[in-house]
Amino acid sequence: LTNVKLWAIDRQCFQTIMMRTGLIKHTEYMEFLK
To answer: From the CA atom positions of the chain, what is the Rg in Å?
Structure first.
């Protein structure tokens, strides 16, 4: 694996993790607003 490929995989994983944590936080926030 080259650094570029490794970075691309890392970035994809990072985006997935950020989206998941973002969704979890958003859900908690919506529950809080209720």
So the answer is: 15
